[in-house]
Fold this protein.
Amino acid sequence: MQDNFLLYNTLTRETEPITPHEPGKIAMYTCGPTVYHYAHIGNLRSYIMEDVLEKALRYAGYDVKRVMNITDVGHLASDADTGEDKMLKGAKREHKSVMEVARFYTDAFFADCEMLNIKRPDVVEPATGCIPDFIRMVESLLEKGYAYEAGGNVYFDTGKLSDYFVFSSAVEKEQLKVGVRDDVEEDRNKRNKNDFVLWFTRSKFEDQALKWDSPWGVGYPGWHIECSCIAIRHLGEYMDLHCGGVDNIFPHHTNEIAQSEAYLGHRWCRHWFHVNHLNDQSGKMSKSKGDFLTVSLLKEKGYDPLAYRMFCLQSHYRKPLVFSFENLDNAAAAYGKLVRKIAGIAPEGEVDQEAFEEYRSRFKEALFGDLNTSMAITVVYDVVKADISGGTKLALLKDFDRVLSIGLTKEGAVLPENTPEADEELERFIREKIEERALAKKSKDFGRADAIREELLARGVAIKDTREGTVYELQH
Ligand code: AMP
Ligand code: ZN
C-alpha cells in the first residue's frame, strides 16, 4: 500500500494527491539537458529536486519508472524555433563534430549528477536515437489534420485546438492570444502565431550538421517532438508525472501536450511538476550567458558538491532560489557541522521502534506534503538532538538519506568528532590548509587563498588572520 502523496500540479494549479493511471506505479518523465555545454548549477537545481521527488515517491512505496531524454538535436537558440541550433553552436565553439560535443557533455552531465548523488533515470534516450519515431508521429499528425506543410517545414496547427494554453489562467490566455513576444521573429509560413515546427527541411541556416531523410525531404526534427515520442515509446500512452524547470512550461510543455494529445486522442499526462529557477545577482542563471557556475567549479573552490545539494534542499522547489557564495557558505558550514555531529554519534543501544516510527512519520509528512524538503531537514536536526539511543538516530538518518542523499551516514565521509585520532587528523588537515593558503597569499594567488578559506568553512572551520598569524575556530 502506498502513502498518500500530495504534490502541486501546474496544470490544475492545485496541490493534489498523485493518482497514477496504474495503481502503485508511476510513469515519470524528465526533460533532459541540451548537451551543447556543461550543465550549470541552476539546471542541476532542477535535477536535484526531481531526484528527491523520484526517491520520495519510491519511499512512499510507488514503483517508479523514470525516463529522460538527451537533447542532441533540434533545440534552437530561441525556444520559439528561431536562431541557430544550440548543438551546432557548441560544435563551432569547440571545433568538434556535433556528436563529439554531445557525447562529451552527456558524460559531463552524468558525472555532475554522480557528484550530487542524483540517480540515473531508468531510461536515458538521446533524441538522435529516435528519429523514425518522430517521423511517424509527424506523419500521423498530418493525417489527422493537426499539422501542415509550409515553406518546406512541417508545423503543428495550434488553431485546431480549443485550448492550447493549458497552463494559463483565463486572464493570461487573453494576454497570450493578443500579445506578440518581442523575442520572436515572424515566420510567414505559420498559420497561427503560436504554431511550432515539427520537422525542418528549410530554415535560416543551411549548415545543419545532422540531417535525416523524411517524407518531407532531408531535414531534422523540431525540439518539442522528442519528449512526446520518447515518453510514449517508453512509458506508453498514459503518463503520471512530467517534470522540468519553470522555463519549460511555455512553450515546451504546452507544445508537448498539444502534439501528444492530438496524436493519442486522449488526455496524456495528469500531473506536472516544475522547479523554480536558481537566480544569481544578474537574474536567471543560463547557459547562453556563457559565464556560469558548474558543480566542478564549486568543487575546485573547495565546496563539497553535497553542500550544494543541501543548499537546494533547504528551500522549497516552487520558490526562486538566489545563489550567492555567501548563501552557499552558510549552507556548507551548516552541512559540515551536521555531518560531523552525525559522525560523532556512537552506534549504541537498541533501535527504539516507537521513536523510529514517530520521526519517520514526521519526515514523511514533510515530503509527502508537496515535497517540503526544508521541513524534512528540520526533522533530521531534531533526530540528531533527540533524547534517543545512538542506534535509533543512525537507523533514522540512514533511512532519511535514501531520499535526501546528502551523505548523512556515509562512512568515512567526515572526520568523526570526540576521538583523539580524529582530532589529530583534523588538526593536521587544518594546519596543512593554513600553510597552503599562506603560500598562495605570498604568491598573490588570492583566488586560491579564498578557495582554501571556503574549503575549511565547508568543513566547519572558520579561520581568522591575526597579528600572531592565522588562527582557527571550530564551528560546533
Ligand atoms: P537545458 O539543458 O537548457 O535544456 O535545461 C535543462 C533543465 O534545467 C530544464 O528542465 C530547465 O527548465 C532547467 N533550468 C534551466 N535554467 C534553470 C535555472 N536557472 N534554474 C533551475 N532550472 C533551470
Ligand atoms: Zn521536454
Residues 411-422 have pLDDT under 50 and may be disordered.
